[in-house]
Design brief:
The complex is a heterodimer of chains A (263) and B (244). Chain A is mostly helical and 263 residues long. Chain A is built from eleven helices and no strands. In chain A, helix 3 runs antiparallel to helix 9 and helix 9 (205-219) runs antiparallel to helix 10. The longest helix of chain A is centred in the C-terminal third of the chain and has 32 residues, at 224-255. The radius of gyration of chain A is 19 Å and the shape is globular. With 244 residues, chain B is of the alpha/beta class. Chain B has a domain at 1-74 and 155-160 and 186-244: Rossmann fold, CATH 3.40.50. Chain B contains nine helices and ten strands. Chain B has helices at 43-50, 72-76, 94-104, 110-120, 136-148, 166-183, 194-200, 218-224, 230-239, and strands spanning 3-14, 17-28, 32-36, 58-63, 66-67, 79-82, 154-158, 186-190, 203-208, 211-216. In chain B, the strands form two sheets. Chain B has a six-stranded mixed β-sheet with strand order 6-7-8-3-9-10, with helices on both faces. Chain B has a four-stranded antiparallel β-sheet with strand order 2-1-4-5, covered by helices on one side. Classes of the chains: A mainly alpha (263), B alpha/beta (244). The interface between A and B is large, with 34 and 37 residues.
Chain lengths: 263, 244
């Protein structure tokens, strides 16, 4: 694995972002709007709901965590789609870059993109709503890490589809997160879901992450089992996603998708 | 003379559809070979396999004596490709694109290489221009600079002068001729411009329906088929199956 090549691919996206003010604005704009909206909703529920009345900012904290997941996943897909839209796919795949180097570079770049959007939004929460996500303490790091891994995993799954099926898979790329959101139990406890849905929810790391976030903020207790379960499931899904990406690349080479991809 | 590219019994099928069938050829060092044939004859598929973008159904490709399938990264380090159908990222400047690809190809002394190519390809004043804002001719020269950024030993060209005006087309052809002489590289040129092929190529492969139907030096093919020029030979072979 060569750092130069990973850095080269990172630079391609770094140049793209830093050249364009509207792109930076776009990265910041949506998380800020999202979090401002959920901040007001959170304040309302804190004063009108028995469930939340002891923990101002539970909804807002979960909204921030979900937004981080969303930005990471979409960010990864966007980096991949950017190559398709700019008809640069062939140039990229005839360069001497390994699949593992592409994945690592995109993982890192997706993190930078997500943080550009999220940090200003998080900084706003304290003066606007008197809430700090840092109330989650050290555990916040584990929750963020877990969400980051799952976001990347989803990104790799979708990119595998883009490799295999080409740009026609683009719509799926946009809708994945919306499909999983109800099962993630982001804003409500898992018990709300019907039994069958609960089974699906427990097979995803999201439910453990958001249950844990609520547990810390509402009950001031930490259940390390939840954090471990989330990491365990993340590990399994990440391995499957990376294997699928390699498989899709091989299939694309057989089918000729790498030559014809692009709009 | 050393074979830079050796293609042995290469075939590619998509299910029942055969795109390329059992082709064999080689390209020597310091040689330009032309790949001619009607649209859909298998030229792009052949180049796709040579670039590692497509997995051959059968056969093998050796570049500088190494098998492509087993040494993909080392081989890709030494080859490159230009086609009007693929583009450099439009939002980046020419220089940024060259830096990105220089890094991807792990080019040493990248600044000096960019300086050298900008000088040779008349890109000096365009380095800080957004690639998407370049004219066709300028884009072509920027793509050529990208294709030469790694000082390739083998270059694959797919219609490199398509859509260029005669002056830029001539500049590109002259540049390629001189660059080949200077660096003694091997080039595979797929083109529909017969004059270009006759001028640049020492030998020609004629493809039709996925197979190589004839090969030889341009003059030899013209004489063999009793035609006035390469275009007439192309038309004769493309239209008549019995001439194979």
């Amino acid at each position: 694995m060569k750092f130069n090549r990973i850095y080269g691919l990172f630079l391609r996206h770094f140049f793209l972002i830093t050249r364009s003010f509207p792109r930076v604005l776009d990265l910041i704009y949506w998380p800020t709007i999202q979090i401002t909206l959920w901040g007001f909703i959170s304040n309302f529920f804190a004063s009108h709901s028995a469930y939340y009345n002891n923990a101002v900012g539970v909804i807002l904290t979960c909204a921030i965590l979900y937004d981080f997941l969303f930005r990471t996943s979409i960010g990864f897909n966007m980096l991949f789609l950017e190559e398709i839209w700019s008809r640069n796919f062939t140039n990229l795949f005839i360069a001497p870059i390994k699949i593992s180097e592409i994945i690592i570079s995109l993982i890192f770049t997706a993190l930078i993109r997500a943080l550009i959007g999220l940090i200003p939004a998080i900084l706003l929460t304290s003066p606007l709503f008197g809430i700090s996500i840092l109330d989650l303490g050290l555990h916040l790091f584990f929750l963020f890490l877990s969400l980051y891994i799952f976001g990347i995993t989803l990104g790799i799954f979708v990119s595998s589809g883009l490799l295999r099926f080409g740009p026609s898979f683009e719509n799926i790329a946009w809708s994945t997160m919306f499909l999983l959101a109800p099962f993630g139990c982001i804003y409500y406890p898992v018990e709300i879901l019907p039994d069958f849905f609960q089974k699906i929810a427990f097979a995803l790391p999201l439910v453990y992450i958001f249950e844990e976030a609520r547990g810390i903020l509402i009950n001031q207790s930490v259940d390390y089992q939840n954090i471990l379960k989330a990491f365990y499931l993340n590990g399994i899904y990440l391995i499957i996603a990376i294997s699928l990406f390699y498989y899709s690349f091989d299939k694309a080479r057989k089918k000729g998708t790498l030559i014809n991809i692009g709009e | 003379m050393n074979n830079s590219v050796q293609v042995n019994s290469l075939s590619k099928s998509y299910g029942r559809k055969i795109a390329v069938k059992n082709i064999n050829f080689s390209i020597n060092e310091n040689e330009i070979i032309g790949l001619l044939g009607p649209n859909g004859c298998g030229k792009t598929t052949t180049i796709g396999m040579l670039l590692g973008l497509l997995k051959p159904t059968e056969g093998e490709i050796l570049i500088n004596g190494m098998k492509l399938e087993k040494n993909k990264i080392s081989i890709l380090q030494k080859i490159n490709f230009i086609s009007p159908y693929i583009e450099l990222p439009k939002k980046l400047t020419v220089k940024q694109n060259l830096i990105v690809y220089g890094k991807l190809y792990s080019v040493t002394n990248l600044s000096r290489r960019i300086e050298y190519l900008s000088e040779k390809l008349r890109l000096n004043n365009l380095l800080n221009t957004i690639t998407g804002e370049l004219s066709s001719g300028q884009k072509n020269r920027a793509s050529l600079a990208k294709a030469l950024i790694n000082d390739p030993r083998v270059l694959f060209l797919d219609e490199p002068t398509a859509s260029l005006d005669p002056e830029v087309g001539d500049f590109v052809r002259t540049f390629l001729e001189n660059y080949k002489k200077e660096r003694k590289i091997s080039i595979l040129l797929a083109s529909h411009n017969m004059e270009e092929v006759r001028r640049l190529c020492s030998s020609i492969l004629m493809m039709k329906d996925g197979i190589i139907i004839d090969k030889g030096k341009p003059e030899e093919l013209i004489a063999k088929h009793g035609r006035k020029n390469l275009e007439e030979v192309f038309l004769k072979l493309a239209r008549n199956k019995n001439e194979i």
